[in-house]
Amino acid sequence: MLFSSWQDRYRMRWERFYTYVRTTPCSVAECRDDAVFFTAPPVRDLLDLCEQRSELANHLVADLGNHLTELDPFRACLCGLLIGRYGERGAGSADADHALAGRFLYTLNACLQSIELICERRSIPVEKLLDRPEALPHCLCALFATDPEPAMASFGMGSLATGLLSRLAASRPLRDRLRQEKQVIPFCEGFGELFDPALVSLPGLLNMAEEGTVILLSLERRVGVEAAFRQVDSNFLLFTLLQNLFHREGLLERFGAPKFVYDPVLDKLSRHLPLSKKERVPDLLEDNAGFDYYAPSALRADGRFDILHLVWGEGSPCTLPQLDGKNLLLLAPLTLPRRWGEEFILGSHPQLRPAATITRLLDEAEVAALTARIRTLNLSKTGNQ
């Protein structure tokens, strides 16, 4: 009975909220300061109730998802932010994620419309607007008077993108849904900084390697392993995960990196694991390469490696070098110091769970066969040049 009464209270407050967002016009002032929305009594009272009874958040997320298309473009974006925030607490559904994706695609197109209208009416190239992102709010205020819908959507894009990032980090089906939309990554890469930094982070989630395997081979030591990885958005992060994995498995010396310095805090942070009460995040979070990482094509006829075939850390594990259809990295003693910072160590979003594990040790015969195959292929390429 008690829960039923909370449900009744929720339904009453939802109706007040829905009436407010549907009948109260959205103003430029609200678009420029979302506190106007969140402090409005019908909004505040509904959110306060969901704070008091966390189980009501599932009802709220479902209702928001069901009604996103009925709201004005700005408030729909703010409700998308709420779907993301409550999703971080465990509330959510596939239907709400689907609605969020649809709203994002609508808002993306509205933002492009805003850019086109602003540039056309001010007779300026897009590049000039991109060079002065601080001018966008003023331009949108002027646009609001004649074309309120694209202006409202553009004002709300940052909030919507923040909510979407949270859900993308938690939902592979949602990531796969947006991967099918070819305009998403070019828009975020081209216009993300104009609208909100959250958009700049979005391609990292969509380009992330969800799962994969890679063979790690030391020709000098004649040893190799196969490792599996998941939710890795850059090669730098993959290097960090592999090096720390080698430490935990006692493989560093075997592969020729006995001087690698293991940092347990960095190891936990890279896998998004909680720190102990005594552990602290350093002011400068950096990792250092324990190996040189080469593509199979790096091996020269004299047995040395071509530095032009180093595997760069900024790339994605989705495009690792391959040998006969399998991802393969050659590990060699470090020749030049390489380091990378926290933006790579921490990855695209804290809700992700990057990981790497050793799946098997390669026996001597397989190592020898792979080595011979690499030498043969590289010699044949040299001979054909």
Please, could you describe this protein's structure?
This protein has 385 residues and is of the alpha+beta class. The chain has helices at 2-23, 28-32, 35-38, 41-52, 57-67, 73-87, 94-122, 126-131, 136-144, 148-170, 172-179, 184-195, 197-206, 235-248, 264-270, 342-345, 364-384; strands spanning 209-218, 223-232, 286-288, 292-294, 322-323, 326-332, 339-341, 355-361. Helix 6 runs parallel beside helix 10 (148-170), helix 9 crosses helix 10 and helix 12 (184-195) packs antiparallel against helix 13 (197-206). The longest helix is centred in the N-terminal third of the chain and has 29 residues, at 94-122. The mean pLDDT is 94.
Notable characteristics:
385 residues, alpha+beta, six-stranded mixed sheet, 17 helices, 8 strands
Distance between the termini: 81 Å
What does the oligomeric state look like here?
A: single chain
Evaluate the radius of gyration: 26 Å
Per the principal axes of the C-alpha atoms, what is the gross shape? elongated
The biggest beta sheet is recorded as:
6 strands, mixed
Helix content: 55-70%
| Beta-strand percentage range | 5-15%
If you average the pLDDT, what whole number results? 94
Q: What sequence of helices (H) and strands (E) makes up the elements? A: HHHHHHHHHHHHHEEHHEEEEEHEH
Protein structure class:
alpha+beta
Q: Count of helices?
A: 17
Number of strands: 8
Q: Low-confidence stretches at least 5 residues in length (pLDDT < 50)?
A: none
